[in-house]
Structure formats: C-alpha cells, structure tokens
Amino acid sequence: MTEAIAFLPPRQAVLSRRAEILDDLKELVPAGRLVEERNALVPFETDGFIAYRRRPLAVVLPETTAQVAAVMKYCHRYGIPVVPRGAGTSLSGGAIPQEDAVVLGLSAMTRIIEVDYANRCATVQAGVTNLAISDAVGADGYFYAPDPSSQLACTIGGNIAMNSGGAHCLKYGVTTNNLLGVKMVLVDGTVVDLGGKHLDAEGYDLLGLVCGSEGQLGIVTEATVRLLAKPEGARPVLFGFDSAEDAGSCVADVIGAGIIPVAIEFMDKPAIEICEAFAKAGYPLDVEALLIVEVEGSEAEMDAMLAAIVEIAKRHGVKIVRESQSANEAALIWKGRKSAFGATGRIADYICMDGTVPLSQLAYVLRKTSEIIDRYGLRVANVFHAGDGNMHPLILYNINDPEDAAKAEAAGMEILKLCVDAGGCLTGEHGVGIEKRDLMLHQFTQVDLDQQMAVRSAFDADWILNPSKVFPLEGRG
Amino acid sequence: MLTPSTETEAAELIRDHATRKTPLQIRGGGTRSGFGNAVSADAVLSSTAITGIIEYNPAEMVMTARAGTPVAEIEAALAENGQGMAFEPMDHRGAMGTSGTPTIGGLFAVNSSGPRRFTAGAARDHLLGVRFVNGAGDVVKAGGKVMKNVTGLDLVKLLAGSYGTMGFLTQVTFKVLPVPKTAATIVISGLEDENAMKALAAALSLSVEVSGAAHLPESVRGRFIGGKLPEGAATVMRLEGLEASVAVRAEKLMSAMAGLGPINRLDADDTKALWTEIRDVTPYGDGTARPLWRVSMPPSEAWKLVAGLRLRAGIDAYYDWQGGLVWMRMEADHEADVLRHGIRSLGGGHATLVRAAPEIRAKVPTFEPLSPAVALLSGRVRAKLDPHGIFNPGLMA
Ligand SMILES: Cc1cc2nc3c(=O)[nH]c(=O)nc-3n(C[C@H](O)[C@H](O)[C@@H](O)COP(=O)(O)OP(=O)(O)OC[C@H]3O[C@@H](n4cnc5c(N)ncnc54)[C@H](O)[C@@H]3O)c2cc1C
Ligand SMILES: Cc1cc2nc3c(=O)[nH]c(=O)nc-3n(C[C@H](O)[C@H](O)[C@H](O)COP(=O)(O)OP(=O)(O)OC[C@H]3O[C@@H](n4cnc5c(N)ncnc54)[C@H](O)[C@@H]3O)c2cc1C
C-alpha cells in the first residue's frame, strides 16, 4: 500500500554495523533479553497504528535501570536511534520503530516497588500496566485515577510518554495531574530523579515537560504516582436524545450549572448500534445520541446530583433516562461504551481519530464531521469524552482497498484540522506520533515548533530518541 | 521601568535587549519583590500595561486573560458566575510585607497554589495555554484552550513556576471550576504532630473527599481566626460541596475520628476565614523579616523534620497539605544548612526561603539546590528559551 507518512532515511552507518552492534548489546543485557531473529522482531514492527510498520535493528528488554542506562550510553556513543516501547498500544504510531533503531522495551520491568498509603502513592517500574496499579491497591480501598480504555495492556511508562487519560479524567485529571515523580535515563545514560513523594518538584517543572513528550526526552524506568481513596459509590446513567445538538448543549449546561460528574461519555447513532449489537447492554436504538453520565459519592449525594442533571436533560428534551439500579446494570452500561473499539473492529477496519474541541463547538464539529465523511463516501461512528471535548470519530473503511484507505486517512486529517480551526487541538490523548506529525503546522507556527524542538534538543542534541516522531521532518531545527 | 502595552511592543523591547545582551528584570505587580536570589538587571520590564480578560465562557470553564490583569479583576469576573481558581492562589503580601497588585501572569509564573493543591492540583495543572516572548524576542504560543491536549511538548508546564526566567508571559488560558456551594471544617483538638499526621492520613483514606488538611500546633493555633479555635493544637479538615453532601460527610468523618480528642465543627464562614489565613500564612505576616521557609516533603516525613529542628533551633511551624507542606518561621538564625540537610536525610523534598533580611538572602540560595545532573539539564533547557540569559539572571540559580 502507499505510505503517506515518511520516515527518516535509516542511517547507513548503523545498518552496516548491525552484527557488531548486536554483539555489543548482548554484553549489556542478561541472556534472552536481546531479540535479534527476524521472526521474533515482527511483533515490534508496529503498534496500535497498524497501517505502518518497520523492522527494527534489534530489540532489547532490560530488567533494571542500570541496564537501560548501559544501553543508552552505548547507543548514544554510536549514534544509534532508540525507540522506547511499553505495551505498543499507541494509536498514533509513537512506538513504531525504523530500520536503524534499537527498540528499548520496558515490558520486562513489571515490579511494583512500593505502595505507600501514608503518602497515598505507589512507586512502580515503567512496564507495570495501568490496571495493575489499581488492582494492587483496590482491596485496600484505593485506585490510580487515569483510566485509558487500554488500561489492561498499556504501561505506566507509555501513559507518561503519552500523558494518557480516560473517561474519568473529567474529575481526576490525566496522567500529568497524577504523577509525582519519575526515575529517568537521559540519552547519554545519566540517571536522574525528577520529583518524588512530595508535591511540586524543585526547580523547573521538567516532570511536567517529560509527561506527554512521547519518548523523545529520556527513558522512564520508574514512576511514583498518586493513589486516591475510592469513592463510596458510583452510578452511571444513560440519557437518550433525538439529536446530537441536544446532547451537546445538555453537556454544556450541566457543566455550566457547576456540576462536575466524574464522566460524561457521548455516542452517536452508529456507535450505539455497533456497541449494542456486540455488548447487548440494552442501549436504546431509537435515539440519535446517547450520553453516559456517571456521578460519585454517597447515596444521598448521588441522588442530589442526578436530580439536578435530570432536570437539565429534560430542558434539552431528553427522551430516555435510565438509571442503573444495580452493580450489574452499571457494569452493563459501561460495557457497551468500553467495547466500542473492539465492537467496531468486528464490523469493519477503522481509524480512530482523537481531536479536542471547546465544548461550545461540539455540535458544530459533529455536523461538519458527518459532512466530511459523506463527501468521502465513508462511514463514521462517534464515541467520545464529551465532558472535556475529546472527540473520537471512528472512520470505517476497508483496509484491503488502497483507495478506501487513502480516503479514510485524508478524511481523518480534514477532521483534525476542523478541530483545530474550531479552537481545539490535534490530539487530546493519543499523541502526535507519526500520525499527526505533518499536521503540526496547522496548530502551531514554525516559531512555536522551533521553540519546542529547541527544548527537545536540550535533552537529546543528536535526535537519537524516537527521531521520526512528533515534529514534521521538514523544517526541523 | 518598561511597560509595553502590547505583546508586539514587548517583543520589540526584548529583541532589542537580546541584541545588546542587556538583562531585564521581569515583573508583574511586584508583590513578590525581594523574593528569589538577587537579580542584577539594567531595566525592569513589567506586564502591568498588558491587561484585560480576552475570553471567558463559564460553560466551558475556561478563561483567557492578558498577563498583567490584576488577580482581583479575574476573581471578581469568576465570582459573578460562581466560579473560581480551584488551586486557591495565595496572597502573600502580608507575609512578604509588600504592597502592589498581584497579576494573573505573576501568579502562574510562580505556580502559586494553596490548601486545595493536594487534591485539586497546582496552578500549573490548571494552566492550559500561554503566549510568551522568549529571550530572543520571538512570540511563542504553547498549549491551547481545551482541557485535554497532548499536541507536542508541554512548554506550558515549563513556563509555570519559572519565575520569569524562561519567558515573558503575555497571555494565559486557564481552567476554572465551580466554587463549592458550602464548606465546613472538622477540628480535632490536642494532637501531637505525629498523631495529627496519622489522623490526617486516615481521613484522606476515607471516601469523604477532604479538600483541606492542616495541623496547627498549639504555638500558632491562637493566631488563627481571632483565637476562635478550641484549646490545644488544632488538626483541621475541610469538606466542601453541596449542603447535603457536606452534612453527610461531616457526620461520617466525625465518627471515624471519634476518640482521638475533642471534636468540633466550624461553619461555612469560619471555614472560609480559617483556610484563607492558612493559605496566606497570616500568623507569620507579622511585619518582621524573620526568616520564613516553605518546605514540601512527603506528608509522613515532614513532622520529623520539624521535631528535629525544634530540638536544635528556635522555630515556629504549621502544616498544610496533609502535613506535606510546612510553613516555618525561624526565631533567630536562618538554619538553611540544618534544614536542607534534614530534608535530604528524610528522603527528599525541597525548601524555599520565602522571606529573610537582605544579608541572609545574599548568602542563602532561595531555592533548593538541584542534583548536579538535573541542574545541568535545567541550565540547558533555560538556554534554549533565553539564549542570552537576559531574563531575571541569577534569580533561580
Ligand atoms: C515567597 C513567596 C511564596 C509564595 N508562595 C505562594 C504559594 O505557595 N501559593 C500561592 O498561591 N501564592 C504564593 N505566592 C504569591 C504569588 O506570588 C502572587 O500572588 C503572584 O500573583 C505574584 O504576582 P505579581 O504580579 O505581584 O508578581 P511579581 O512579584 O511582579 O513577580 C513574581 C515573579 O513572577 C515573574 N513574573 C511576573 N510577571 C511575569 C510575566 N508576565 N511573565 C513572566 N514572568 C513574570 C517575576 O519575574 C517574578 O519572578 C508567593 C509569593 C511569594 C513572594
Ligand atoms: C483499544 C485502545 C484504547 C485506547 N484508549 C485510550 C484512552 O482511552 N486514552 C488514552 O490516552 N489512550 C488510549 N489508547 C492509546 C494508548 O493505549 C496509550 O497511548 C498508552 O499510554 C500507550 O501505552 P503503551 O505502554 O502501550 O506505550 P507504547 O505504545 O509502547 O508507546 C507509546 C509512546 O510512549 C513511548 N514510551 C513507552 N514507554 C516509555 C518509557 N518507559 N519511557 C519513555 N517513553 C516511553 C514510546 O516511545 C511511544 O512514543 C488506546 C489504545 C488502544 C489500542
């Protein structure tokens, strides 16, 4: 298939020394932690952005920070590109390597180092999965708040690199708001600690800068994250509307009224149909848009909050209000939403876009999105985090039809530009990766990007870390 | 004093200084003057003429304002819509003995956050986007105006808390939140520091959403809200929200804490007064220049530092943020070495010298010294934003 997105040309000097490099790397990690066989490298060729793939030079899977440091020191010395990798669930191609790169996988570093309830934090190795943290502390009444839909698989290192969020971030914030510190290996192998168990790291906020930097500033090997006490109870409610506009303005009014639910999820008709067919969650099929609003607290609090929300929904002509009456019903309501990606994947190939827009623009952007999709003769299902304006149009296409694939990609890019033009941005949680790299100039000026790239260079002067990503290849400083 | 009235004018002035490599002291309302390590600059560049709220849509919980806008003007506009800055920015004029009008740019430049910080996040967590002029005179935009944004490097975080050493902010966009409808405070009396910390940690493990958690030892208790707090050290916990929820949660919290000591409950008015005074360090706004330190440590460790210092030096201290933030006034010497050594030996954190006489400031670094590797990295980052080192040179060094 044709590839619209370019990679940097591989460094010949690196390719030609492959055998030697492998021998050297073997010395730096324990036996079995270097992957070099062609077939064994295949799983590392791509991530969740499967339209693109490249076979890396090699993969190392270190077990300790010291081994990571040794590998970095070596690669730095010989100018070998390094692509950090967690679980490889990136949807923007952030973990896709290139032929001259060593993939540095953190998946073997899965130890929970310390759980500290007195300070409500946990220190874990970078390869620990997001859900494993909540699982480890759940029985004691705590949880780790950011909840990407991929939380079963994705690692905390990947979450930090992408500043991931999920449905409940409306109340609890995204990764950067829940991160206290990291241990990180710099490009030359130096190990630094940023932050710790205290609030507000000393000096400049390098921790804030590292979060969301997509593996370009260093390799995170350990993280200290905040733990929160679980709420007393949580209750999701389904609201069905006759139009996306009504649902959108209902969201804006709930928030305008000073009510912050923990989650507000939106689904349009195609998404409702797809999810219902798969999850049998009992979603209404005769509505145009559906909201899942979840509130938390004691029974009394939830009652009070829901009463206020229902009142607002009525003003916007809500057609169906379904409160969950049991834990089972609550789980079912979420099951439909959470299976959206999987359920869509069963009926068609799709690309999942990820732009954000100001809440007041939601209805407008939805309307424009369907115009764009119609123009390309494609189909789209919309599911997203409405409370914070993070849209996820799923564009359906046929991956075996190159023309269809090209159309889907082009439509997706138009939608992202639309988000930016409406006052939003290119990505709310999936990152820029390679996918949106060439759109960066739509959101930023060259001067803005030059400043970002200069800061990147302060960490990695030779651009060895994840070099094909985030910044357009042309005009790099 | 240079007071450009537009961003373009500011950029021209800065470019001109960059060409000549002449340093500039960056200022907002100057309410923090005297804070930080000494700056030697030829001129002062102030944001006070770059003012005005540009965009405010309450339903989106986002505001955009020019950097020199007085914080009071912002707060008034928010209050009209029942909203506020959830991180509770403090007014430190009392503690610093300064006057002037705090600006919104200055607030984010110092990443100023109060009691709700440990649940609501710091100022920087609420800052969504900025426009600034870098040290080469380029106008740079970073971030955006939506809650979720991971497009490119997060320079917004870098600018927040950089004390005017990375760029001259001209515009800030930040998240605002509904002001809680009501609030109450539970006061447990008579706890020693160590037990107070255990009580606070226990309270925070409950699902009652404590949004303020402080301990006021007996030495300072009487200096809050006109001496109205009950006898003995006061361990205070704030609850906020709808009337009904606060009532339910207060009951629950009080029964969980029963047996630790006498328990009282403050009403909404006293709650507001108390937490404003905790936030603004009112007891130490005593018109003196006695050294005032602000220490951030793991909540389980900070009281040990205080206990150790009490044995060796004359100090007065109280705790916020579940015990993780210590406001500490030195009765005689500044005790920088003992203090910073203590922090390191207890597992890390940092101390900032908020106030001191000029002769002490001259020899004690305001900010916690960084590890050599981090200091090197920070220097490289700063050089990318301010290549000629013309912004507030020395202030954070
Ligand atoms: C020691 C100390 C500790 C404090 N701690 C807290 C705290 O913990 N919590 C809290 O809420 N508040 C705190 N404050 C209060 C906070 O600093 C003020 O409320 C803030 O708004 C300052 O505004 P200003 O305009 O007076 O700033 P100024 O005093 O004029 O400047 C403050 C700093 O910000 C920089 N600055 C000002 N404007 C700009 C700009 N446009 N662009 C770039 N840099 C700029 C200056 O160079 C200077 O370094 C503290 C103040 C001091 C002095
Ligand atoms: C079905 C599905 C649903 C998803 N839902 C969400 C969602 O709701 N919210 C959301 O935010 N994302 C979501 N994602 C995207 C993805 O899961 C996140 O971006 C996640 O954080 C990636 O983690 P990972 O461990 O898989 O990282 P990878 O995909 O392996 O890597 C992602 C990026 O992080 C870098 N990286 C990884 N580990 C490190 C490290 N230790 N140090 C430095 N850099 C590192 C890589 O170089 C790469 O740039 C979803 C993905 C899928 C497949």
UniProtKB/TrEMBL annotation, chain A:
Co-factor(s): FAD
Record-linked Gene3D superfamilies: 3.30.465.10, 3.30.70.2740, Vanillyl-alcohol Oxidase, Chain A, domain 4 (1.10.45.10)
Highest taxon of the lineage: Bacteria
Domain FAD-binding PCMH-type: 52-230
Keywords: FAD, Flavoprotein, Oxidoreductase, Plasmid
Name this polypeptide is given: FAD-binding protein
Organism: Peteryoungia algae
TrEMBL record, chain B:
Superkingdom as given in the UniProt entry: Bacteria
Positions of the FAD-binding PCMH-type domain: 1-179
GO molecular function: glycolate dehydrogenase activity
SUPFAM superfamilies: FAD-binding/transporter-associated domain-like, FAD-linked oxidases, C-terminal domain
InterPro entries (alphabetical): FAD-bd_PCMH, FAD-bd_PCMH-like_sf, FAD-bd_PCMH_sub2, FAD-linked_Oxase-like_C, Oxid_FAD_bind_N
The entry's keywords: FAD, Flavoprotein, Oxidoreductase, Plasmid
Stored Pfam families: FAD_binding_4 (PF01565)
EC identifiers of the protein: 1.1.99.14
Gene3D superfamilies: 3.30.465.10
PANTHER family given in the database record: D-LACTATE DEHYDROGENASE (PTHR11748), GLYCOLATE OXIDASE SUBUNIT GLCE (PTHR11748:SF103)
Official protein name in the record: Glycolate oxidase subunit GlcE
Gene of this entry: glcE
